[in-house]
Each structure stands twice: as structure tokens, then as C-alpha cells.
Amino acid sequence: SDNKSEASANDIDSLRAKGNAKFGEKKYQEAIDLYSLAIAKSDSADHLGLAKCLGNKAYCHIKLEDYKTAINDCTEALSHDPNYVRALQRRATAYESVDDLKSALNDLISITKIILPSNKSDLKPSQQQQEVMENIDRLLKAISTEKAKEALKVEKATLLHLCGKVEEALELYEQANRISPDDPHVLVKWANAFLFADKLDEANALLDKAVAIAPEDSAVLFHYGESCNAQRRHEDAISFYNKVIAVDPAHYEAYNHKGLACLAFLESKGFFLT
Fold first, then answer.
1. Which residue spans traverse the membrane (predicted)?
2. How many angstroms from the chain centroid is the CA of residue 100?
């Protein structure tokens, strides 16, 4: 039975490879037929394999301008692998092609959350991050509603900030804030960029404003706690983490970071000296 399943897997890989070759030859319908056969033969538990086949099939449908089918294929691919960036990119392209710019925006926002740099010291944008920023720029030009523009500006600013382009990020956060001056989550992200640039007074002023607007928003309170910790204001950090826990008792990160702040506070007072 293991030999049979191995043979089946090899057969599916072969079909997918043949589909890729047909795609390279721009024989999109033939590629679709091969991907469809691979999908039909696949084990339902082979989530990554199915996601790839469906994502590739969707790309063929985009080339044939069958955007509705492409969207359906991408959605099915994402049901197997929710973090499959190519499926999100292709679905965003298909949504944009049928003028569903709001859905395209949502997919781009999802992508930014997946591809944020895991290593904060790696400050050069990857090709993937650069492509997403270019897509965001294109959508910014196409979208007419100010609220949607704000969301895109915030996501692009977050990418720029984490790739080390802090001054560009600060400018975009300011633009987003002009669109929605009372959005506490824009203020928090803007404050984080100021903190990254060691502009503590500006960061704290924005966090004060965010807390004044949303005094019981656990995300806002948690970020203020993080900011205090970064400034070695451990007692203030503990106070904000306590507020988070009071608002959201299931916010486990707040318990964890409060514990770390307590340890840092005790260490600053010399409790661990030998």
C-alpha cells in the first residue's frame, strides 16, 4: 500500500510538472486539464499539493481572463493553505480585474501580515515585499474611497517600517492619520515607527492620544505597555499590561510580557545581584 501511494504521489507530481511545462508554452487550457487531473488524483489530506495545483490552475484562468474561476480556485487553494501567498496574490489580481477593489485590498493586507520580516535586523526588502508594495501603489491609484486608501497606506507603511525605511513609513502614517485622525490603531503603528527611530516624545504623544480615544482597547493598551518596556519604564509597562488583562483576561501575551517586565524591574533594582 505504501508503494501504491508512492506511485500515486509520483504520478501527481508528474502531472503537475507537465502542467507547468504547458503553462510555459502558453498552452493554458492543456495546463488546466493536467492540473485538474492531478487534483482529482490527489489525496484530500495532501493540503500543500492541492493548494499548489489549484493556485497554478487559477493562474491559467487569469491568463485566459476567466477571473471568476480563478477566484474560486484561489479560494479553494487557501482553504488548504491559508498562508499560501501566491494564491492570495493571484486572487488579488483576479479581484482587481473584475473591479472588486475592496476584496483585492483585503488580500494584499493579508499578504503583508504573512511576509513581514521575521528577522528585524534584515532591513532590505525582499523581492516579494517589493512586489506587494508595488501592488499596493497600483491599487492606491485605483481606489477612490479615502478609508480604503488609509488601510493601504498603513499596510505599506508597516512594511517600510519593518524593512528599515522608517522616514518613508512615518510620512505614510501621517498621510493615513490625516484621512482618519481618530483611528487609534493608525496612531499606535505610527508611534511604533517613531519608537524605532528613537523619537520617544513623538511616540508617547501618539500613544497618549490613542489611549484617550480607546481607553479599553486591549491592542492599544498592549502596545503602550510594549513601548514603556522598550524605554525601560517597567513600572508603567506593568500598569498597562494589568489594564490589558482587566479588559481581556484571555490576552496571554499580556501575562507573559508582564512577567518579563516584572523581572526587568527587579533586576533594575539589583534584586538578582550576587
1. none
2. 20
